[in-house]
Amino acid sequence: MSDKTPKYITTTLPYANASPHMGHALEFVQADTLARYWRLIGQDVFFNVGADEHGQKISRKADEAGIGRQEYVDKYAAEFDNLKSALNLSYDSFTRTSSPAHKAAAQHIWKLCEENGDIYKKKYSGLYCVGCEAFKVESDLVEGKCPDHQTEPEEIEEENYFFKLSQYQSYLETHLSKAGVVLPEWRRIEALNFVQGGLEDLSISREKSRMDWGVPVPSDEDHVMYVWFDALTNYISCLDWPEDKDGNFEKFWQDGETLQLAGKDQIRFQSVIWQAMLKSAGIQATDQIFYHGFINSDGQKMSKSLGNVIDPYEIVEKYGTDAARYIMLRHVHPTDDSDLTWEKMDAYYTANLVHGIGNLTARVMKMAETHLDEPVSFAYDYEHSPVLSAYSFQVAMDNIWQVIGQMDEYIAEKEPFKLVKTDTEKAKEMIVSLVQDLKKVATALIPFMPATAETILEAIKENKKPENLFARLEK
User: Annotated catalytic residue: which of 7, 102, 146, 439?
Assistant: First the structure.
């Protein structure tokens, strides 16, 4: 495809039963960085996030809280949407699965799969984990409990609708054998191995008498859709599928390049179930799915009971928006699990922001303001970044900070602030060169730390030292 091919990017929809955590923030910031980068190099972009608002977990939590289900999801959906300002996100759509437009899209994809002969009804009994919103087999359990939620599944017998996932084993094996459809590569192998291990048909409805908070099954008022069958459809409902009044589905999904971001625990849903649903409905597959790792704290999974949960809103409150983005993009590995603590983040912030880009900007622009008669004016456009195109956020940021380090070394070695007293013209040439390099650094920072980049570029334009970019932490 050409460099002007429209780009579509989406995160997974966080489940609206709790406040945002670091994994959500990481995924949002990664996606936002890519969206900003693509826009900078001249591509049309559609960027989607949202909230998954149905299912048994939510209905139970709302009932326990003594409030209506819609009121309950409204509260948590707002917390996720508020990340837009907290993290300076540039998304085009916030898809809520409780919206009428999304419900209509979910019912339409059901009808298409049903018309294709891939949905049928049968009685089923099994072990059901409310936390996972999924049936389990004995081999999934550890000492009789769900390993993810440490609860014993409920024994349930009911009549459900099923999706013929097993019919798509050969298709999925072929799809997942293509290099690049899943990144990193080992996640593609993981997905392929899962499919090759054999697929069973998927229960895609729940009896309304047992679980009434969901999208109604078309033509059967006694059933609602399984939450995943409903929620996955958001990736195209956000584009106004199936009506497509503005042509966004055709432009971004059919004619564009599509990318989904997801956590490493999402492979079964994103690369298997969703791709089979799309095939059944006659819609082309997602071009690429990128899986990130988890963020732990002090070597342990974040847990409220352990008291080691790091709230993304607290990071923004302590360090600021761009600093929070910096930490997630440079000090969290794009694909592997990473470890964050407040002590580590304090060190990153002080060394690389206060004493790094912050101090460098102050030194260079103070010299420019004092010794240059006019602003340094030169054209420098944003350059295509092969590293960022490969989703190597850390490497891209390391490259920027390498330049920052080289500039610091240059100032320490050449001392233009001293040379200006004995060789004014030579010192001015050095200062101009430093300002030019600073502009290159600021321009490179635009997708990662947009507000910081804008402040630096404005200071260069005005030939004036800005206020400190990053305040020192209070001891």
Answer: 146
Distance CA(339)–CA(302), nearest Å, equals: 10
In the residue annotation, 149 being an active-site residue is answered as yes
**Structure confidence at residue 2 as a pLDDT band (50, 70, 90):** very low
Q: Which residues pair with 94 in a beta bridge?
A: 49
- Total residue count of the chain as it appears in this document: 475
pTM, two decimal places: 0.93
Per-residue pLDDT reduced to its tens digit, 111-144: 999 999 999 999 887 787 877 777 777 778 888 8
Q: Could you give all domains of the chain from N- to C-terminal order, each with its CATH number?
A: 7-292 (3.40.50.620), 321-462 (1.10.730.10)
One-letter amino acid of 285: A
pLDDT at position 305, please? Answer: 57
Alpha carbon distances (Å) from 79 to 10, 45, 453 = 18, 25, 27
The DSSP annotation for 283-340 comes to -PPPSEEEEE--EEETTEE--TTTT----HHHHHHHH-HHHHHHHHHHSS-SSS-EE-
Choose, from 21, 84, 264, 440, the residue flagged as catalytic. Answer: 21
**Could you confirm whether 132 is annotated as catalytic?**
yes
- Residue 238 catalytic? no
| pLDDT at residue 461, rounded to an integer | 96
On whether the CB atoms of residues 345 and 474 are closer than 8 A, the answer is no
Give CA–CA dist 441/398, Å, rounded. 12
Q: Verify whether residue 113 is a known catalytic residue.
A: no
Cα–Cα dist 444/438, whole Å: 10
Is 146 a catalytic site residue?
yes
Mean pLDDT across 348-374: 98
Active-site hit among 121, 122, 301, 384:
301
Contact partners, residue 170, CB within 8 Å, separation at least 6: none
Is pLDDT at 148 greater than 80 in this prediction?
no
- Give me the chain's average pLDDT, please: 94
What span, in angstroms and rounded, lies between the C-alpha atoms of 53 and 35? 25
Task: Please tell me which residue in 57, 102, 103, 129 is annotated as part of the active site.
Answer: 129
Q: Of 121, 149, 384, 464, which residue is the catalytic one?
A: 149
Catalytic site includes residue 21: yes
